[in-house]
Structure formats: C-alpha cells, structure tokens
Design goal:
The complex is a heterodimer of chains A (325) and B (315).
Chain A (H helix, E strand, L loop, with lengths): L2 H14 L1 H25 L7 H17 L5 H19 L9 H13 L2 H10 L4 H6 L2 H4 L6 H35 L7 E4 L2 E3 L2 E3 L4 E4 H30 L2 H21 L16 H6 L10 H25 L5
Helix pairs in contact in A: 1-9, 2-9, 3-4, 5-9, 5-10, 6-9, 6-10, 6-11, 9-10, 10-11, 10-13
Chain B lengths: L7 E12 L2 E12 L3 E5 L6 H8 L7 E6 L2 E2 L4 H5 L2 E4 L11 H12 L7 H7 L15 H13 L5 E5 L7 H18 L2 E6 L2 H7 L2 E6 L2 E2 L3 E2 H8 L3 E7 L1 H9 L3 E4 L11 E5 L5 H10 L3 E6 L5 H9 L5
Parallel strand pairs in B: 3-8, 3-9, 6-7, 7-8
Antiparallel strand pairs in B: 1-2, 1-4, 4-5, 9-10, 9-11, 12-14, 12-15, 13-14
Helix pairs in contact in B: 4-5
Classes of the chains: A mainly alpha (325), B alpha/beta (315).
Chain lengths: 325, 315
Amino acid sequence: MKFPGLVENEMLKIAKQRRFRVVVLILVALIGLIVYGSFRARDRFHVKDWHVEAQERTAWLQGRIRDSRTPPTALRWFRFELARLQYHLDRNLDPDAISGPLFARAFANHASYLLLPLLAIVFASDIVSAEFAQGTIKLLLTRPVGRAWVLGSKLAALLLAITLTVLLGGLVAYLFGGLAFGYRGWEAPVLTGFRASGQGVDPSAIRSVALWKDAVLAYGLAWFAALCVGAIALLTSVILRSTAAAMGTMVAALIAGSIVPRLAPSWEAQKFLFVTALPLPDYYSGSPPPIPGLTVGLAVAVLAAWAAAALLAAFWVFTRRDVLA
Amino acid sequence: MPAPAADVVLSAQNLTKRFGERVAVADVSFDVRAGEVFGFLGPNGAGKTTTIRMLVGLARPDRGTIRIRGLDLATHFEQALSHVGCIVESPDLYRYLTGRENLLHFARMLGDGAAGRIEELAALVALAERLDDKVSTYSLGMRQRLGIAQALLGNPDVLILDEPANGLDPAGIREIRHLVRSLARERGMSVFVSSHLLSEIELMCDRVAIVHRGRTLAAAPVAELLARVSSDRLLVRALPAAAAAEVIARFGAVEPGDGDDREEPAPEVVARVPPERVPDLLRALVAAGVDVHTIERPEASLEEIFLEITGSQTV
C-alpha cells in the first residue's frame, strides 16, 4: 500500500515550501492584532465595580423569577441568565468581560467566512498547478501510481493542512486571548440556539451549554467550511493549472459571497451558493441569518454538495486530461 | 526483420495523435528489444516528445497501442509503468528539496525498497557528495544526472530519455553517453533515447528510427542507416580553383560551393565523387599542381537522410 507514502510526499512538499510558514505567520500576526485591539478597547466600559453591578442584577433576576406574573418564556431566559451570573460570581469573574476562551470561541465565527477559507485557498490553489509550473507533473504521473491515487494523496494532504490550520488558529486565539483576558472560563455557560421566527426570536430552542462544547461545535463547523472551500479550490487548481489564476478565481468568489447578501438580500436562490453558506458558526449560534431560509443544516448540505461536485469534477478532469505542459 | 515477441520490451504500434487539425504523430510503430540502446532521431517539432509522452502515459494516443513487457499501457497502466524509468523533456525535479529528498519522494511512489537503492544510484551518477544540497543549487548537468538516478530507482527494464544531451557541455554529454552504454551493456537495460543530432545517436545507439513530420521509418541498425545515406558529396577547397574544378570534372560532377569563402584559404568546390575514387582524385589533384587545403565529406542532414530513405519528395 503506497498511499500513506504518497500523502507523506505531499505533506513534505507543503511543509518545505514557504507557504506554510506564511500562513502560520498570518494567523499569529492577525490574531495578535485583534487581541491587542480589543484589549485596549476593553477598559473604557466600566463605570462602577462589576461585583456590585453583577450582584444588583442577580437580586433583580431573583425577584422576577419569584414573581408569579412573569411569563414562562421569560422565566426560562431569566433562569439561564441567573445561572450564568452565578457561575461567574462563584469564580470571581466579571460576567461581562471577555475571557480567553470566549475570545477563542468568537474567533471561530469571525474567521469562518473569510480568513480560514482564504488560508485553505492558499494551500489548495497551487497543490496541482505548482506541479505543472515546475514541470514535475511529468515525473509524478509517469510513476506506477494511478492518477486518481496521485490526486487522492494531494487531497488528503490538503485536508490535513487545512485541519492543522484551523487547529492552529484556535490554539493561537486561545493563547493570545488568554494572555490578555485570562485563560479560565471554558466551563462558563453560554446561550445558544437562537432561531429567527417571523419578526422576533423563537425562544423555545434556546439552551445553555458549556462554552467548551459550544466552541468545539463552532470550530468543527468552521473546519468543515474550510475543507469544502479547499475542495472547490482544488478543482480550480486542476482546471486552470495556474496558481495565480486559481487563487484569483477563488478569492473573487469569496468576496462576491460577502457582497451579494448585502446588495441583493431578497434574492432567495443565493442560499445555494457555497460562499453564502460559509459562515456556518454564525448560522449555528443563531445570529439572524442574512438570507431567509438559510439554516445551519441547509448551509452544511449546500457546502457538502458543492465540495462533492467539485471533487468529482477534479478527479474526472485530472485522470483524463493529456499532460502536454 | 521482426524480432521475436519475448525479446521486445517496449512496443509501439500505429501510434497517432492529433491536436485539433494538426497531426502531431501519424502511425508511428517501432519495437525496442531487450538490452539495446534505441535511438529516436528527428528534427525539433517532428513529434518526438509527443510520442514519448504517449509512451509514458502522459498523453493518450488517438489510435494505436503501447505495450511494455507485453502489458498494454491503456489497460495495465501501473504494472506497465513499473518497468519504465523516464525523463521527459527537461529533468524537472523539486528545486526546494534536496537531491536525497527528491529521490526519497519518487522512491515512495515505487514502494518495494526502492529507497534502499538511493546511495548506490547517487554513486553511479556521481552525485553522492551533493545529495543533501537543494536541487536549486545544482547545475543542469547535475540535475540531468539526478533525473537519471530517479529514473533508475525502480530498476526498470526500459529507460526513456528525451534529448538527454540538451543544454549539456561536451563533457556532460560524454558522461551521459557512457552511462547509457554501460546501463545497456552491464545491466541489460533497454534505453530509448530521442535526439535531433545524428552524431549523438550514432555514438550511443544500436538501432535507430527516424521520425519526420510525425512519421517514422522502420528501425534499422545505425551502421546500416549510415551506409544507406552516405552521400557522394565532397567539399574541396583548393587553389587554383579553376584547375581543381577541371581535374575533379574527370571523376564526377562539379557544383559551385555556397560562396561563403571569407575566412577560408581557398574557394569551395562541391564534387560528386564516389568514396572509392577519392584517393585517385587526390593523386590527380596533386599531380596537376593544385594546392589542396581541405577536403571533407559533409554529414547528411536529417532532412536529406529522410528523403534519401523514403525516396519520396512528398512527405
């Protein structure tokens, strides 16, 4: 079985080129910048001591929960909020302050629709085209290894590289966030499951989960989105055989994806575009979806369909096309 | 002279490849036998590289079959190519990796202990000392040799080299030639070499096929080919030219030279004299008091050879 060796080859090529180091550098620099910015902005909010503030709110919530006139939906909400305040007071944490874990969790949302896909594109767009540019494709495809296995090993290495990037992003966000805001707070309860219904918010699906569970889910979704973008970028790399052209095409698509929902919010079919489906963590945590009808489940399905179609096309073209470069 | 099938290691039958309207390779057939160095000779653009790309599975022929050790490349790609090592066009390797990393990379694609041959092959191509340097620091000759080491990793039965002398200095060309000859003689490897230089093929190969505008001639031993095309043209530079022309006319036809006599001691006269009469011609020239400065038999161009052999002007 040669496949593990082939994947090792592809990982070696990714690691030995400058690209991987650049990606690490981008992640570290960008996250460092964001942490520094929010650290400087944080001190301006506090008017009075947060202990006093939190205790006042606890007392008020307890009063409302005892009050028989409080509607049951609000009661649920108040109980969640009380539990959250209590958790922070017990641990002597500011309930409104950002913590390292919270920062890392928020990074998943913000990185999922542009930064992580972009880094996935950086890896994917030259994984095939570079072999054409260097002329090494002539050696790679004249070895006793079927072309499908060659592309398969490249795909596996690409998925590995993207996975490492997402993990690294989360890790750096936590390390830097923790440095500025403290490393504790993974157990803190957070509310999730907001769902838009008509004009308001449907509270029945709201639930409280530990932050770490929420973060694992958010990173899992961001990871899945990045993998799908990588698969689509692999197709452009196979078809265009030029790193610059492949990267340009994918970046243009990403940018279009962030413009279209703003310019044409009422166009319903856009929920079937892969770029509008990218902010999976946002759809999951229930920030009001900018596109009507786009739920996290549908977004995952849309991305998976695009990625599967792209992979099919990439394998079809790669295994059939003459190499004359 | 059809070779017995068991002896044929690489066989191409009726290969045809079109690019749109243009026919790049038309009905090319040849057999490469075990242990021989087979030349594939043709001018640039004759279809050599396209043919090689089909032989190694980079391009699919529109028509025709390729068999390597009897295995059809179209249906048994992996088994067939496991008997082949090749360099197509230029020896392109990963420049950001070291020589050793490159060889390891391709050894992993072969499996079965190919990595164990790296040291031996590096020594064979005289790269052992530079094996841990990045390929980007190698000269073209070193990259060519690393390319050959790479091609030999799988201990192939057939080695396919596309214009291996391109861009090399005379010493580099000589090294490659010696390597190719010794691989065929000592390891019984078949080597398929393409070139646009007759002189190179003449020195390296046992048999040769000529390709011209996408067509090939039946392969023939190199000596036989040279004998068939040995022309009766002689270039004579002698003074006085008029007296020389007079003498030569007694032995054969005289044609005017190309007129480019600027840096020459004497004007050029082209004589059509059969080889066996040349000694007599020389004696006669000397007896007539003509000063002979140079006399040479120019090598026939590929174009001439091709036309000579096909005897056709319509190719």
